[in-house]
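Thread amino acids onto this structure.
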């Protein structure tokens, strides 16, 4: 067995990670995998199952943290919650292609506002900061990528450290947990005026929107400001209709 094959008989890395998750303050929900699809996703990722990225891909369909505010992608999709797999969100080849690798990097998570956590690959794309193996963040208020100066394993630890709400600061609102808990994972919160507009004096109106619409609007806005993105902010199968308005 090569070191890139799923080592299902060695689940120690996943047991350690899931133990940390369950003891955290992040209210985690670990979505069970479709094992066959997860194995296929891991093979296309071409990482070892013993790595943190491989352990997540092989052993779950995703992880919802902070009542679904943060959605970490797993190796298989979860139709019940509307969460795509890491392969779907990164537009992997439809069939296993061992000549294809995500050399630029991988989207590893989205937040409910359309923020994107991206793991730099060996050759990070143009316009993205950081070094290979570093997690960076696409920030909706600035429409810019920001370095987090964390490896993937360090980022996973940070996600469950309890510090994540401080990261968002005044982007949170009094009922954010209740509002986010009611969403599917292919839905997010659209904010008017847009977070990048700088218009804050009159407050914000929030409504439910598909993640596809939120990500597309951000990419268009970045392009209009002369900051075209070198790749998609993420792909979602289908496009659910949003019909709810939040207070």
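Threaded sequence (247 positions):
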């Amino acid at each position: 067995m090569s070191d890139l094959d799923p080592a299902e008989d060695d689940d120690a890395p996943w047991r350690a990670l899931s133990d940390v998750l369950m003891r955290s303050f992040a209210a985690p929900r670990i979505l069970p995998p479709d094992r066959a699809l997860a194995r296929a996703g891991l093979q296309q990722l071409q990482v070892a199952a013993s790595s943190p990225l491989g352990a997540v891909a092989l052993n779950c369909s995703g992880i919802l943290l902070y009542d679904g505010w943060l959605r970490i992608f797993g190796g298989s999709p979860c139709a019940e919650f509307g969460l795509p797999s890491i392969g779907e969100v990164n537009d992997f080849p439809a069939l296993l292609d061992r000549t294809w690798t995500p050399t630029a990097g991988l989207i590893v998570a989205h937040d409910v506002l359309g923020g994107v956590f991206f793991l730099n690959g060996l050759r990070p794309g143009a316009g993205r900061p950081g070094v290979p193996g570093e997690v960076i963040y696409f920030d909706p208020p600035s429409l810019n990528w920001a370095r987090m100066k964390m490896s993937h394993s360090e980022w996973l630890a940070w996600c469950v450290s309890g510090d994540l709400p401080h990261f968002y600061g005044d982007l949170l609102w009094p009922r954010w947990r209740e509002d986010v808990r009611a969403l599917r994972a292919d839905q997010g919160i659209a904010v008017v005026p847009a977070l990048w507009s700088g218009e804050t004096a009159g407050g914000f109106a929030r409504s439910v929107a598909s993640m596809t619409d939120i990500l597309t609007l951000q990419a268009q806005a970045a392009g209009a400001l002369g900051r075209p993105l070198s790749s998609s902010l993420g792909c979602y199968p289908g496009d659910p209709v949003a019909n709810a308005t939040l207070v």
